[in-house]
């Protein structure tokens, strides 16, 4: 089908032009680029034959083990082993671009992503106007006025979404469109955040973070931003509602829901404070977004900003993949844990989430005589499982398990439980960043590496991905502490870490086999530090450095941001909030130069929006500047070296 015809088809559906015949139509689509559309088609060779609860087993060792009954048992699914082969990688790539695990229901029917200021028609129109040229930041016309904080987005105004469309494509990267007998929905896939279009070539960079994705603003423009309130600082108790419009809680008393309009306005202001390229994945009732990480993940464990995704298959990478779909794209699943996590009765929590739902079938009306949980059960497309997405449910649900926030494993019917998450891990671990300009010749890069070692960077940034895989206490690293303590409340309800045997079919059989995940000693201490448990104040992982040229701004809060003009374009207010992408070289210089960093921190502190999102750019006070005895030329060489790192820096023996 030619490109213009595809666009016309989307526009027709989005505009409601599919009439009687369309009421019988079902289809879905998400773009997946072929190798010719990629800037980084080359991958690492497949050298690991099995992953056994995070332990890598090379091909030669696997061959020897498979020759004995004991060895075959060690590499069995019953022992938690995942066989890594080309078929698994292919499924992982497909899932990376196309798998939603059903989140289109929450995003469309509950949050109302297509019923707010941005409509399907306007999105289709914006793509059509590209004429096949592609974009790194789709500008979409507002369909109606929406107030977000003290800003009114007017009808007809263009919204910088940060959504990417590859050159020659008619579809948004990382969004899967569903059309089902008159109902249009959109779901998100991993590629929305972890793949990006290169502005120079229009090609897709697999694994690069979408550094200008305006996720917070997109959510603020939805019709029911309240559905994500637990990821922000908006307080329901500050917006008391009509006492006559309440829910019946345990014990029989009636509790009013927060005022719909007032609380919705507060929730919008909070998520809209996120800098572009950030996402708040911690349901801790504090606004504290973190930078979207790259998926250049090989030997980059542990994962997540704090390193809390650190155990289980693929050394925690599968846990990170799972968290997006088992926690962050369906807040209804947190209902049973609402008292522990948020101090809210489950019915009050769910009623708050659903009272503004976009779809009538999921919109809670206190006058209906039903409880919110009864409404959810009646409309749930996944009966028997909590929430709306497709989950394999561990017996420990809703307790936290250090492999998963809540005992849920996002899974696809007809596959093994957690199979798609493991497949995506196998695929991501093969991704290499494209070569970027090093800002100089090979000799300058070599001198930069020498500076890297001389100032002590290699003490933490060592190994093949330039990370020692450690979690550093927040007191030592010195960054803003809110994110480090975001999982503290989960310690109150904690289960031993376990997963299903990796060949367990989904839907689950009556008595599925569980595989315990061993955790003790120093590994347990590191996991507890990453989660802010066992009396610690939490910490942050030592970031791997592969692909730095594609991942500006820097630090966990996105605070170290400098534009092409290093004198005026400082902090998130001078870059991302002004529609200017941070310059990787200038931002890296601010990471190691205390004078430039002080200017960046001051710019962030002067921004009310950055303060609301707890973005400071502080911490990681390890310097390579004149006060540290490093000349300007040596600093330039160091930046050139950091910009040049696009793959693992040394051969990695696989046992």
TrEMBL record:
Origin superkingdom: Bacteria
InterPro entries membership: Cyt_c-like_dom, Cyt_c-like_dom_sf, Cytochrome_c_Peroxidase/MauG
Sorted alphabetically, the keyword list is: Heme, Iron, Metal-binding
Q: Membrane-spanning residues where?
A: none
Q: Which residues form the Cytochrome c domain?
A: 443-646
PANTHER family per the record? Answer: CYTOCHROME C PEROXIDASE-RELATED
What this protein is called in its record is: Cytochrome C oxidase Cbb3
Which organism is the protein's source?
A: Methylorubrum podarium
